[in-house]
Amino acid sequence: MDLDRQLGVAPTEHDAAVANLFSSLLLRRLTHTAIGLSDDSVDLLVTMTGRLRAAEGMILRDPLDEY
């Protein structure tokens, strides 16, 4: 089911509305910047983020991994 088509909104309108709910200005900015990117681009950003965290000694458990 294509919820965006059913609601009659552009696919990014809902994403922008959710991004506006974040209290952090920097998180809102990052989210708005990423809206509409392809899956490949988002995967690349996730990979880069992981590398940046590792470089700063901030390795975190992947929330999608099983315990």
Task: Tell me about this structure.
It is a single chain. This protein has helices at residues 3-7, 11-19, 25-34, 39-55. With 67 residues, the chain is mostly helical. The longest helix is centred in the C-terminal third of the chain and has 17 residues, at 39-55. The model has no long low-confidence stretch (mean pLDDT 78).
Q: Summarize this, please?
A:
The chain is mainly alpha-helical and 67 residues long. It has 4 helices and no strands.
Summary tags:
4 helices, 61% helix, globular, single chain, 0% strand, 67 residues, mainly alpha
Topology:
Elements: H1 3-7, H2 11-19, H3 25-34, H4 39-55
Low-confidence stretches: none
**Span of the ends, CA to CA:** 31 Å
Label the overall shape.
globular
Class per helix and strand makeup = mainly alpha
Instruction: Evaluate the radius of gyration.
Output: 15 Å
Helicity, as a percent range? 55-70%
What is the count of DSSP helices, taking H or I runs of 4+ residues? 4
List the helices and strands in order. HHHH
* Strand count: 0
